[in-house]
Amino acid sequence: MKKWLDGPFYKAVCKVTEKEFEKAKEERDFVVMTESTLDNAETTIAFKPRIEYPKYFKFFRLYKD
User: 54-58 contacts: CB < 8 A, separation 24 or more?
Assistant: First the structure.
């Protein structure tokens, strides 16, 4: 995990519901990030790269500004 966190990584940003967010936290090898200006609310989950992600991840919507 440390090697992954210390190195470069590619990302896809998805917008999920609270329910999807909580379910995703049941997976393994991830880091939850918080935002201090939102009273340290959990705002983001970064998952360690893997060969295959859980099937339900493919239904997450990509975030578009």
Answer: 54/27, 56/20, 56/23, 57/24
